[in-house]
Amino acid sequence: MSARMLFMKQSQLFIPTLREMPSDAQVISHALLVRAGYVRQVSAGIYAYLPLANRILEKLKTIMREELDKIGAAEFLAPALLSADLWRESGRYNTYGEDLYKLKNRDGSDFILGPTHEETVTALVRNEITSYKKLPMSIYQIQSKYRDEKRPRYGLLRGREFIMKDAYSFHATQESLDETYLDYKHAYEAIFERAGLDFKPIIADAGAMGGKDSQEFMAITLDRSDLNHWLILDKSIQSIDEIPTTVLKDIKVELSKWLIAGEDTVVYSDSGDYSANLEMASSLYQEVVNEVEFAELKKVLTPDAKTIREISHFLKVPVGQTIKSLVYNADGQLVLVLLHGGDELNEVKLKNYLGVDVLEAASEEEVFEKFSAHFGSLGPVGLSEEIRILADREVADIKNAVVGANEDGFHYLNVNLDRDFKVTEFADLRTVKEGEISPDGKGTLKFSRGIEIGHIFKLGTRYTESMGANVLDPNGKAIPIIMGCYGIGVSRLLSAVLEQYARITVEKTFKGDYKFAWSINLPASLAPYDVHLVPIAVKDETTMALTADLQKVLEAKGYSVLIDDRDERAGVKFADSDLIGLPVRVTIGKKAPEGIVELKIRKTGEVIEVSQSELVNTIDSLNK
């Protein structure tokens, strides 16, 4: 039921629906948000949330406030316009990147539009809290954030202005942070469950936020293969089997037009609890016992063969017998990275392992100066001990390998670890592949696309040390405050919901043809109105009297009601109703004089006739 108990006439509500999908949309959530009159773009990456979208956002905010109240978090509100001086203190003013909106006031002082508020809250606490006795403390806000995205796209999923719930906790001990971190994890799970989302909490990279432990919450986006998920059948169709194959083919074509939303790949076990972002995912490593005898080291000519595939083909050796050599510049130092020839480097793992701020592929000039060869001919044999060599764990299993000879156009055959080259350190540096064994040994890894909707971090003292935010401990010693940070992309949630609740409604016409159209099937917990009353003959007194009676009865029971009082054809009203996506549509039509209405259940497409006296009880039963 809605928190705001009121009704609204559709003629008075700003819902500018469109007949066709917008041509610039690439994902279905963006297309439907625009077509159904939920949002409008004001400029690139900046959107206005129209009344229906705003009501959903307010419901999401209410759910968040209720769950965060339970864990003792207090709401506050910080300014969006921030002094650059605080970001200089933390070091992020120059390192955050081009996404940071920078501006000056009339006096020439530097300001930014806040993309996040770690520095602001650290300064607030630094100036007000001096003793451990006032900790722990947890505060949160819900406000707009600003990031100058180079290429804003996918509607609300990547914009320049967006709504975010950001929370911050402050602690004197690591144990206290660990406890609050779990509180937020459970609160987030409750929030997303109440929002009706299919989501997974996954191991994640902290990225530019800093800190150590972090966990993302990903809304799973489905592929296009399961038509049973995507279709809502009209009352005239009993099952999907009745739909002609030509129509089903057209539906599949329509589905294929839209990109699968989500810029992240979620890796999860098909029979265990493991889940992680692809950037952080691991698989089970099992050492291979290889009793092959070491063969004699040989240098061979490999003209015009530079890639692993070319080398494998030219030398007629399997890819699994090759070692890939990559060179990276890590905070100004060159590092050689070795991988199994069939693997791809996971740069996030490498950067985290090295603990560096800047990691980038070395240039041709840097490589030639150090190795006397170019890319495609590099390898670990005969290198100076000053060069740091990192290798993925699986490199240790390769015997009689093929590597570059550090001479253009040449490779070594029968290269073996310890005999021919040394490795400074072994680590998990590869990108996992679907079908590998989960790192906990439970099941195999599966991939799916996901939309990041929440992220929690253990920041530690990343900000408090650089900004001098200390408290006195029980012994009177000054210690840096330990921090946690917890974010939810509120406006992103709106897109995530649409991605999961978009549907195609299929109906059979009176001529026996089949037609289909996109519709929205919002969960009851988020729908902007609970019930859509659709009187067909708005100039008929009996019809409108019954409509008014139903509206009063529904409101008395706590339901919010949208009344389509427009003088439009029934087809127009039904099409708009499907687009808007309210859970229940009540049509007041020809049987209005008998007190009988038609009730359509959005999520199933089921249509039933009920009497005026039974309407509320029927709707109540649907919400149980």
From TrEMBL:
One of its GO terms (cellular component) is cytosol. Residues 55-528 form the Aminoacyl-transfer RNA synthetases class-II family profile domain. CDD domains: ProRS-INS, ProRS_anticodon_short, ProRS_core_prok. Pfam families: HGTP_anticodon, tRNA-synt_2b, tRNA_edit. PROSITE patterns: AA_TRNA_LIGASE_II. Keywords: Aminoacyl-tRNA synthetase, ATP-binding, Cytoplasm, Ligase, Nucleotide-binding, Protein biosynthesis. It comes from the Bacteria. Its EC number is 6.1.1.15. Gene3D superfamilies: Anticodon-binding domain (3.40.50.800), Bira Bifunctional Protein, Domain 2 (3.30.930.10), YbaK/aminoacyl-tRNA synthetase-associated domain (3.90.960.10). The keyword Nucleotide-binding applies. One of its GO terms (molecular function) is aminoacyl-tRNA deacylase activity. It catalyses: tRNA(Pro) + L-proline + ATP = L-prolyl-tRNA(Pro) + AMP + diphosphate. One of its GO terms (biological process) is prolyl-tRNA aminoacylation. It is found in: Cytoplasm. The keyword Kinase does not apply. Homodimer. Catalyzes the attachment of proline to tRNA(Pro) in a two-step reaction: proline is first activated by ATP to form Pro-AMP and then transferred to the acceptor end of tRNA(Pro). As ProRS can inadvertently accommodate and process non-cognate amino acids such as alanine and cysteine, to avoid such errors it has two additional distinct editing activities against alanine. One activity is designated as 'pretransfer' editing and involves the tRNA(Pro)-independent hydrolysis of activated Ala-AMP. Belongs to the class-II aminoacyl-tRNA synthetase family. ProS type 1 subfamily. Consists of three domains: the N-terminal catalytic domain, the editing domain and the C-terminal anticodon-binding domain. This is Proline--tRNA ligase. The gene is proS.
